[in-house]
Amino acid sequence: MFLRFSSVFSVVKDSDMRQKVLSLSEAVAWAEHHRHDGSKMVFTNGVFDILHPGHIRYLQEARREGDALIVGVNSDRSVRAIKGPGRPINPEHERAELIAALSSVNAVVIFDEDDPHQIISRLQPDVLAKGADWAADRIIGRDLVEARGGRLVRIPLAEGYSTSDIIKKIRG
User: Fold this and answer.
1) What kind and span of H or E run contains 43?
2) pLDDT interval class at 170 (50, 70, 90)
3) What is the CA radius of gyration of the chain?
């Protein structure tokens, strides 16, 4: 009975999604700790503006590529620079909190740059995961990961899911 209670308590305690949203310096320390323990760290990034099953499946698949998954979420400023003035729909901290709530995600960090090169350079992941809609030679950070002996994984996207399509449908 005590073991069952203590494991449930630890799951509840550790599942607080806000604890999984880290600053860049905390994320770097987190990554170093996991690397020191011999864990294989996977990194991916995205806007994740309106969470849909395609995002969930993508992140589950990315997590299968290593021992821990850290997700970079674009800041509101960087989303506007990339997607235009009508985006994001949801603010960065809410998007990060939703991603952190997923069991496949171990940590989340918000980054403000227009691309993830700097954060990948700081985190030094073993695996860089990106959607298969990106050509391998256009994936930012690939050079950094492969130079350290890591690898790039291109994950097929789930058919029929698109944040842009959802927004168009809503705006009708």
Assistant:
1) strand 41-46
2) confident
3) 16
